[in-house]
Amino acid sequence: MHLFKKIVLTAVWLIAAITYSSAQNIYKGKIIDSITRQPVELITVRAVSSNQATTTDKSGNFRLSVPSDTATLMISCIGCSTRYVKSRAGSHAIIIAVNHAPIDLTEVQITPGLNNATFSTLGTLDLNLRPVNSSQDLMRLVPGLFIAQHMGGGKAEQIFVRGFDADHGTDINVTVDGMPVNLASHIHGQGYADLHFLIPETVSDFDYGKGPYYTDKGDFTTAGYLNYNTKDAVEKSIISLEGGQFNSFRAMALIDLLSAKAKQSGENAYVAGEYNYTDGAFKLPERYKRYNLFAKYSKQLNENNKLTLSASAFSTTWTASGEIPERAAAAGTTAIDVNGKPYLVPEIASPISRFGTIDSAQGGKTSRFNFIAKLASNLKNNWTMENQLYYTHYNFLLHVNSSFFAEDSLGGEQQQNEIRDLYGYNGKLSKRIYAGKNIFTTNFGIGTRFDRTYGTERSDVTEQYQLLDYIELGDIRQNNSNVYLDETLESGKWLLNAGVRADYFNFNFHDSTKTNVILSPKFNIQYTANNQVQFYLKAGKGFHSNSAITVIGNNGFETLPAAYGADLGLNWKPIPKLYINTALWYLYLQQEFVYSDDGNIVPGGKTKRDGLDVSARYQLAKWLFADLNLNLARPKLADSAKNTGYLALAPTFTSTGGIDFKFANGINGGLSYRYLHSRPGNNTNTLIADGYYVTDLKVNYTQKRYEIGLSIENLFNTKWNEFEAEEVSQLRGESAPVDQMSFTPGTPFFAKLRVALFF
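-> structure tokens emitted (759 positions)
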């Protein structure tokens, strides 16, 4: 903590020490999309003569300080035509419309900025080049982030990132349009982030950041954050039909509701709907069924105020085959005895298929309704303000069995159930001050969220779902309120940022209450040497998220253990069509909470992680693009000796990459791979979670009025496990429980055809 105080004080001293230089001329304007007339964020605006540059904010606005009173501004972005606009300083803000154009990596500009422009650049490239048709596809676009499904398609995916088995969202903050997706103190896992309510065709862009370095991000942001933004306006209406193996079917419609005249006046509205069904590759049909609805309305109330309203709803039901102990599907598998020593398990009497089922009573249903209202305002004297309200109503019911007869003779069935209301507010006030060649940016934010659950339940039941006994039962009342302040100084090639965030928590379960306040300072330095090279250092303190049930039950342990991290990175364009981002990173946790054998969350000790992230995007030809992501991590218990203290399921090496093509005649698509290295299955590394290498193919023929597409998951029909975990289980006929890895098989060769109409 003393180190961070020194860093913040040093930053303040540096800011105060910089003197104002000669007067500068201010150029200001707004960048909009030529078709939708909506503002465009992260457009690079560069003065040709002085090479000074900036990027547009969320409202599409920019302000650029240049020595001369006239200048030619170069406007560039990914997927748009470069424009050169002559302007005079001090004039009224100019409005510049940008046209869509084929992707050209020459347009990627390295500019100063703390708005994670680097990661937004990578995200924009990938989203434009790689077709997506599910929320899983969207999450896999994040370099180094892997997901796994292990209880049927209706449950939130398990997330692996930066040396974390982040469970279903414990260590990564997920939002949509600023609304939290993570559910605090969820009965199935802290920070449970079910993104299935998001229709991928409604997504305009996404941004992400790794580490605890962002003052506007608090709970769940140990490993990083991920935010998706939906479109304020659509370019065209779409009807899409998709069908494939395993009785899979998807129908989607996105309908623009207003006329071109309404759009010209700043008013937009559209609706979208989606239906999904599949039986999956399992012997027991999954009968996965999901309905999604989404509607959004936005209106420019006047020159300075924009109102946005959106609502979404989804409902899912499914049957799950669950996790299968390795010995149930193969002979000669490894287990560990009561002393932790590995041994080989002999073949069982009646082995089943990898896609078989042991307990057919597993499955669940879930639903979520969301409403968001946001008002964005440009105030006087370079002040801007954002106010957002959101509400979620949520239902969850899951029947799961991973132990079978290990605990009793009735089969080990467990029921998890909760009903929840979530509502909250986000507010932000910002101001920019131009002082000579220096730019000061102040951000002040406040926020609060209230989670209320009714009858949160985890219980033992029979296969007919008759209650045996309650493991957990009660209502949860949880509040997290926050306030943050950060200051950024841009001076020449340097950018300095210092900030602090305060979080207040109130946990209530079983009528017991605990409160906590935690301060999280952040410090960032960035040096942009030129248009090709940029160095950055990020440092910050965050905290490890915690559940109200655990907080109330674990007396004597840290409620919100501190997390300290640092990134040293480089953004580099060695040649015009090659973009490289790389970072060395470190993260220390004062206490990490893990799952025990009985399913409870318990303190797991101090942990540390370090690693290397490398991402590269290269344009080989006008129509051909390559991408590569390499992510190395060394996760371990901090107090353990060398070669001990493993963290179960924590990824150590992952890689994704591929080749994408976009021909002028409408043929487009790509071949991509994802690789997850084998890693410890338990904390002694006596059990192993197998790695995998899977290749996917997508090919489309796109014309103005229609698109025909083919997608193939697991092109080479690789045998792989999507999920693995250590479980103590006992099968029918076994005399004693066995401790070994259980798995969910990965999807085999899976082909789908798609037809879409545009109007």
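Helices lie at 2-17, 117-129, 135-139, 260-264, 548-553.
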